[in-house]
Amino acid sequence: MLTIIIIALIAIIALFAVKSLRMQFITQPVFQFFKKVLPPLSDTEREAMEAGDVWWEGELFRGNPNWNTLHSYGKPTLTAEEKDFIDNQVMTALTMIDDFDIVHNRKDLPPELWDYFKKEGFFALIIPKKFGGKAFSAYANSTIVSKLASRSVSAAVTVMVPNSLGPGELLTHYGTEEQKERWLPALAKGDEIPCFALTGPEAGSDAGAIPDVGIVCRGEFNGEEVLGLKLTWNKRYITLAPVATVLGLAFQMRDPDGLLGEKKNLGITCALIPTDHPGVVIGRRHNPLNMAFMNGTTQGDEVFIPLDWIIGGPEFAGRGWRMLVECLSAGRGISLPALATASGHMATKTTTAYSYVRHQFGMAIGQFEGVQEALARIIANTYQLEAARRLTTTGIDLKVKPSVVTAIAKFHMTELGRAVMNDAMDIQSGKGIQLGPKNYLGHPYMSNPISITVEGANILTRSLMIFGQGATRCHPYVLAEMEAAAMENQHEALTRFDSLLMGHMGYATRNAFSALFNALTASRFGSAPVSGETKQYYKDMSRLSSALAFMTDISMLIMGGDLKRKEMLSARMGDVLSQLYLGSATLKLFEDNGRQQDDLPVVRYVMANRLHLAAKALEDVIRNFPNRPVAWLLRALIFPIGNHFTAPSDKMATELVSGMLKPSTARERITFLCPEFEGDVGGIAEVEQAFVAQYACKDIYKKLKKAQRSGELPSKVPNLVLFAKALEQGTISNDEHQTLLHADKLRLAAINVNDFEAL
C-alpha cells in the first residue's frame, strides 16, 4: 500500500515538474476549458477595465493584504492655500445661504451667491493654475463640497458639477492646447458655465448604449466649407443645462462615407459646443425632488459642428468612452461621497444635540436605549463615511484612477448617507418633518435618492461593477490569462498560459489553506502592523480577504461566464470586498487621528459591523451557491467551526453614545464638516447652542433632581416653576437660576418648529 502511495506521489510530482507532460495533460486541457468558460467582454467593458487603475483594493482582493502599504499612503492634508479658501471663501458662502428660501421661494440660488461662486473661483477648483484655476486636491474639493452640503444640497451640487465629470476635467486631461486656452480661463472665471450631457431617455446606467449620433460630413462654418459632424441628440437629467453656456456632449460617431478612413463606426466621442450655437436647445428644467439646483434637458437636430470641436481634436474621435470612464471614476470618489459625508456630519451634530435637549417622560431622549440604538448607528456610520472619504480622496490625489474603489465609495457611502438620514429622522421625528427655516434634516432627506440614482444607479453599481471589475482587474492572474487566451499564436499563448496557471494554482492553494488555518485558530497567528486593541481587526480582515480570494477562484472555475449573470452572488462577493475596504479606511483613520482613545468606542462598533457584514456576505454566497458539493467544500474551508463574526453588541452601542452626548473632541472630529459661524441663525446653530448651554447646566440639574427625590422640590412641574421654587428655597443661587433660564430658552427654541399662516 505504501509503495502504491509513493508511486502515485512520484507520478503527480513528475506530471507537474516535467513541462512536456504538464503541458499535454494539465495545461492544454485547462486552457481549452478556460477559453470555453471565459466570460465574454464587450468593447465598453474592456475599455472600462483598461481605463482604471488597481490600488488598495488589489491588496484586499488577493488574500494577503500588506497593511504597511495602507499606512504608507499618508494622511490627507490641506495646503495653506486650500485651508485659507475654506476658512474664508467657503465660510463666507455659508453665511449667504438660506436653503429654505433657495428651495421654496427662489427655486434657484440667489444672484449674489451665483456671483460670489463665480468671482471667488468655486467653479475652478480642479482647473490648473496656469489657466486661472485653483488646482486643489481631491481632498480639498471634497471638503469644500461637504461643508456647503451641510447647509444646502442645492448650493453644493451647483459647485460640485463643474468640478466633477464635465468640460473642465475633460479639457484638462484631453483637450488640445487651443481648446484649453479658449475655454479653461473662461470656465475658471465663471464667464462660462459648463454642463456635460451623457444620459438620455434610452441610455442611463448603460451609458455605452447612447443612441445620440454624429455623422461625419462637410458643412458650412464661419462662411467656409469644412469637415465636421452633423449631430442629433436628446439628453435629460443634465445638471446646469438650463443655465449652461458651454455643452459637453457624448455621442456615437459614424463615418458612413469614409471621409476619415475605412472605419464606419468610430465609437463614443465627446465634443464641446457653445450653447448659443445654432440648433442647440437648452432651458427646460426638471424638478429633482424639489431641490433648486439647475437640472434639465438638451436637444439638437442635425446640428453641424467642425471636427476640431471634438475634445482632444479629431484624433480623439471614438475615444470618448475611455475618457468618460477615467474621469467618472474620479468624480464617483469625490462628489457624491462628499454629499453623503456631509449628511453624516450634520446628522451626528444635530441628533446628538437634539437627543440631549429633547426630554420626554422626565429625561433626555438620548437616555432611552431605543434611541441609543439608532444614535449609535448614526455616529458609527458617520465615522465610517469620514474614513472612506479620506482614504478614497487619498487614492485620487496619488494620481491613480481606482475605478473599483470609487464604485465602492459611490455605492456604499450614498447608502450609508441614506441610513444616517433615516435614523436621524426617526429620532428627531416632528423636528425633521416640519419644513421651514429651522429644519435642517428635511432637504437632505428628500434629496438623498438623487445621489443613489446618479452616476450609475446603486443597484447596478453593486451587482455589476464592484465585483465584476474587481474580480478581473484585481486578480493577479485572471486578466493576464484572458489576454493569453486571446493571443493569435496558439503556441505562445499556451506557453504563457502554462506559466500563469502554475502561479494561479499556487495562489489558490495558499489562500485555501490560509482561510482554513485562520478560521481554526481565530486568526491568532496572523500578522498585524500595530499593537493594542485594533491588532485583531487587521488579522480578521486578512482572514476574510483570503476567504474571498479562494471563493472567487472557485466561483470563476465552476460558473465561468455565467458568474456575470449571477448578479446576486457576485454582488455579495462584491460586498465582501467593499466591507474590507471600508474597514481598512476605518483603521487608517484611527491611525491618522493619532490612535485617540476616545475614538475606540466608535472604532469597535464600526469594525464589529464591517467584519459581521463581510462574513455574512460570504455565508450568503455559500448558502446560495448553485453547486452544492462545492458549497459544502467552501463552508468547510471558510467556516469550519461556524461563523462567529457577530453584529455590534448593545454594550458597544451604549458606550459609544454615552461618549457623544457631551461636547468633546471626539464629537468634533466627526462633525467638523458641519461648521458653526458668526451670524448663523439657522436650526443647526440653535440646537448646538442649546446643547452646549444645557450641558453646562448638568451639575445644577443634579441638584434639582436630588431635591426632587428628597421631596424638597415638586416633581412633574414646568421648568420655569421648578427653577423659581428652587431659587425660593435656596437650592440654587441667583446666578444658577439665570443660567437655567437662559439654557431653557435656548432649549425651547431648538425643539420648536416653524409654523405658517393657513393657506
UniProtKB/TrEMBL annotation:
Record domain Acyl-CoA dehydrogenase/oxidase C-terminal: where: 318-451
Reactions the enzyme catalyzes: a medium-chain 2,3-saturated fatty acyl-CoA + oxidized [electron-transfer flavoprotein] + H(+) = a medium-chain (2E)-enoyl-CoA + reduced [electron-transfer flavoprotein]; a long-chain 2,3-saturated fatty acyl-CoA + oxidized [electron-transfer flavoprotein] + H(+) = a long-chain (2E)-enoyl-CoA + reduced [electron-transfer flavoprotein]
Pathway: Lipid metabolism; fatty acid beta-oxidation
Descriptive protein name: Acyl-coenzyme A dehydrogenase
Acyl-CoA dehydrogenase/oxidase N-terminal domain residues: 85-191
Keywords noted in UniProt: FAD, Flavoprotein, Oxidoreductase
Family: Belongs to the acyl-CoA dehydrogenase family.
Top-rank EC class of the record's enzyme: oxidoreductase
Cofactor entry: FAD
Every Acyl-CoA dehydrogenase C-terminal bacterial-type domain range: 472-756
UniProt-listed InterPro entries: Acyl-CoA_dehydrogenase, Acyl-CoA_Oxase/DH_mid-dom, Acyl-CoA_Oxase/DH_mid-dom_sf, AcylCo_DH-like_C, AcylCo_DH/oxidase_C, AcylCoA_DH/ox_N, AcylCoA_DH/ox_N_sf, AcylCoA_DH/oxidase_NM_dom_sf
